[in-house]
Amino acid sequence: MKPGEYISGQKALIACFLLIIGFMNSVALADPSLSIHPASLLYIDFVSVLIIAGYLFYDFRRKNAFLRELESYDPGGHSSGQGIKHTYEEKWYLAILTRHYRSYLEDLRMANEEKKEWMEYMTSWFHEIKTPIAVSRMLHEAGEGSGSLEEEMDRIEHFVEQALYFSRLNDFNNDYLIQETEIGKIVKDALKVHSKAFFAKKIHLEVRFEYIEALTDKKALLYLFNQLLGNALKYTPAGGELVVSVLSKERLITIRDNGIGISPEDLPRIFEKGFTGKNGRELFSSTGMGLFLAKKIADKLGHEVRIHSERGVFTEARIHFPIPGGATYLGLEAENHEK
């Protein structure tokens, strides 16, 4: 910092000092009872100017030293000016700088983590999507029936949709459209999409519909329900039973199957990214992303997803729609938790 720049920043202080000097001189000259000789008054003024000049010189050097320290200041380590005794104002500046630096590091860490997650997911996704593409090509070359080919194409479409939702997860709030929606209609649409799977595995479907309207995004809720219903179909053996209920009083969608169930040790981790559990590793190919995305989307929408299961007996997935104005309404609880 140059002397001119420093003086420019001290204009208010200098003006105040000159006003005080001028006031004192006026009082001394106007009041004959003080009997101060003009030469003495000039001497007092001269000494006062020297004192303020000395202060400004000291303050200029101190602030220059502080600015040089800031240039090499490392909020995460040791600064080069550790021997300097700081004023409260300077400590405050350093504290703000440190706080912003830590916030920047946290944002950088999260960005790197998101990039790593995306790369890991895409690597897994490329491996997963190769299988239905290869099978589709074999079916086409062998001239097999269109049913099997359509099933593989549905798998490809599911993987693509999953990748799209994963890529938009952090900008989800900019993409969804919240409006009053009849929940039963979304459930019926999803059941129609999976109708071929029900017939192919001869699964007995029981439905119980009660009228509910809730604030939600239709596409996101449809994806969420499809994910839970798809899991139920995947892990329910041929000839099994599946009950889908829409309950108005409880404000719930439930999907209950009598499939293989989930191991007790796996149940607490089913919503973790990349977690496949025993079922995914031993019985079916799984990316471990489906329930992770379902939970994230539900949190963004302000819905609650819970899964109860007993190994070899049943699995029940629930989507709960909180009452408007509640803590989890429209994802407020999730957003506050992230902050």
TrEMBL record:
It is found in: Cell membrane. One of its GO terms (cellular component) is plasma membrane. It is a multi-pass membrane protein. Its EC number is 2.7.13.3. Signal peptide: none annotated. It holds the Pfam family HATPase_c. Keywords: ATP-binding, Cell membrane, Kinase, Membrane, Nucleotide-binding, Phosphoprotein, Transferase, Transmembrane, Transmembrane helix, Two-component regulatory system. The keyword Protein biosynthesis does not apply. PROSITE patterns: HIS_KIN. Residues 124-325 form the Histidine kinase domain. It catalyses: ATP + protein L-histidine = ADP + protein N-phospho-L-histidine. CDD domains: HisKA (cd00082). The chain crosses the membrane at residues 40-58. One of its GO terms (molecular function) is phosphoprotein phosphatase activity. Its main location: membrane. GO terms for biological process: cellular response to phosphate starvation. It is an enzyme of class 2 (transferase). This is histidine kinase. It comes from Neobacillus piezotolerans. The lineage of its organism: Bacteria, Bacillati, Bacillota, Bacilli, Bacillales.
